[in-house]
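Anyone up for a design puzzle?
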């Protein structure tokens, strides 16, 4: 790996003291070169930290691979074709087959629900592979084996295994586009699953459904979380058309597990299921939340599954929406495992699975006294769920929001949904090139909140500090900060508070 940078001028500096063998000048130079590469790849604003299980050289290679992938067609762009990904998995030997898959789409709640399905399948003894997107802090979060992210070294190895075949497909493309970053990542996930090998896959759609790269899988179970408006530039603003796009993951003979939806949206999904002769399980009919009460650190639930009732479930997540996600995940796991009234899941396994669930960046507590929370809400639908949870499950006397959004999102709609739940906002930006300019966002925020409730601080770290100062003006108790507006914003907030990717 380091041969690629033999001509790089090393940075000079004093090596840290420590125990161990005396290192040769060549080794010291190599470390300096690697350090230089790390600095160059990371950039200065949001540096990643070398994991304890990785070497500096191995992590430098991971960052280099991630940079190579970033030079491909961005994953925020969708072309209505499965030709490239189909050709790639074909030459790879169809690594997406050989294990049953729970395939998830929807507007919000996909990643949390996927984590819950994974926890349930893992708890009953299956070896699982989970693929979700986007990531909060590190790309390895996207590909999980046994409910844990793969290591940076494994990520690199899977990429090296797959990239010769990617180059082959690119060479055949003619006038068409080369493979996108998301298509390559999707193939990497399937390859990692096949190599493990896994006994079940949990696969989250990246964008839409019908034309998403993940839709080469034939999901035995298709999960559709609540559908709202998002990615309008690709999916449009007609919610029924969006529903038809997402319904494309429902495959012949599968089980469609449907979250509660607007009546017209539900009709679109049921019609698709009937068209392909898929069975249907609906929240509020075949399964759902029977009882919910707040508990310290989360909530306690009684769920109605497809195979019976499961009570005394502790879910260490906040929000009524997470209770619905839990019911959805339970039904999906039951459908995949073939559980029914005569053969229900082990209640203790169900309890243990839900109690183990973590959902980073989903109303996640980053600090106490004063409380700092992070949430990845990035559209009005998600902001509405966030605001409802903040108002019903927390007793803030003064809550300040730090908000940074992407310029292609419905910022006004997001701000309007958050307005009843927060007292002031500090407008900022994350490090993404897609981030909305803070001054532009602040102008919208002033229209929603009024000028006296809006501050601007372009740097996220300083914005959080300012929000803490504003919150503490309300006293020593009952005050807090919520950092939200984007997955990237939530991920960078986690990094600021020293949270490891998970």
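Challenge accepted. My sequence:
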């Amino acid at each position: 790996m380091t041969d690629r940078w033999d001509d790089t001028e090393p940075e000079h500096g004093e090596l840290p003291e420590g125990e161990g063998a005396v290192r040769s000048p060549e080794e010291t130079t190599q470390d300096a070169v690697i350090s230089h590469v790390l600095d160059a790849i990371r950039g200065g604003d949001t540096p990643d930290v070398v994991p304890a299980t990785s070497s500096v050289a191995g992590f430098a290679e991971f960052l280099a691979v991630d940079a190579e992938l970033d030079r491909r067609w961005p994953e925020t762009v969708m072309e209505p074709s499965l030709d490239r990904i189909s050709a790639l998995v074909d030459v790879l030997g169809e690594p997406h087959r050989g294990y049953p898959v729970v395939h998830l789409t929807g507007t919000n709640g996909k990643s949390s629900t996927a984590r819950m399905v994974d926890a349930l399948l893992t708890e009953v003894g299956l070896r699982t592979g989970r693929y979700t997107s986007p990531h909060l802090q590190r790309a390895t979060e996207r590909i999980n084996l046994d409910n844990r992210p793969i290591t940076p070294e494994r990520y690199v190895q899977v990429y090296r295994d797959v990239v010769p075949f990617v180059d082959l497909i690119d060479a055949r493309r003619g006038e068409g586009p080369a493979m996108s970053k998301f298509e390559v990542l999707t193939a990497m996930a399937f390859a990692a699953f096949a190599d493990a090998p896994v006994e079940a896959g949990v696969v989250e759609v990246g964008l839409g459904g019908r034309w998403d790269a993940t839709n080469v899988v034939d999901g035995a179970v298709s999960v559709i979380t609540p559908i709202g408006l998002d990615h309008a530039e690709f999916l449009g603003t007609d919610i029924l058309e969006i529903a038809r796009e997402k319904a494309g993951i429902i495959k012949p003979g599968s089980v469609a597990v449907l979250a509660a939806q607007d009546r017209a949206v539900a009709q679109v999904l049921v019609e698709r299921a009937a068209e392909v002769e898929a069975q249907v399980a609906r929240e509020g009919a075949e399964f759902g939340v029977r009882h919910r009460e707040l508990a310290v650190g989360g909530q306690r639930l009684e769920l109605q599954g497809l195979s019976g009732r499961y009570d005394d479930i502790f879910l260490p997540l906040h929000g009524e929406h997470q209770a619905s996600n839990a019911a959805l995940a339970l039904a999906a796991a039951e459908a995949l495992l073939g559980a029914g009234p005569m053969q229900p899941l082990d209640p203790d396994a169900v309890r243990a699975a839900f109690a183990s669930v973590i959902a980073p960046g989903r109303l996640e507590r980053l600090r106490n006294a004063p409380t700092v929370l992070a949430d990845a809400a990035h559209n009005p639908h998600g902001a509405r769920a966030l605001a409802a949870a903040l108002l019903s499950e927390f007793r803030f006397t003064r809550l300040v929001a730090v908000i940074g959004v992407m310029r292609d999102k419905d910022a006004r709609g997001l701000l309007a949904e958050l307005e009843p739940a927060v007292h002031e906002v500090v407008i900022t930006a994350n490090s993404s090139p897609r981030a909305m300019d803070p001054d532009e966002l602040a102008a919208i925020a002033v229209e929603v909140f009024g000028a006296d409730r809006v501050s601007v601080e372009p740097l996220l770290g300083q914005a959080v500090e300012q929000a803490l100062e504003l919150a503490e003006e309300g006293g020593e108790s009952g005050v807090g900060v919520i950092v939200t507006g984007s997955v990237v914003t939530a991920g960078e907030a986690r990094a600021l508070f020293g949270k490891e990717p998970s």
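A detail worth pointing out: The longest helix spans residues 152-171.
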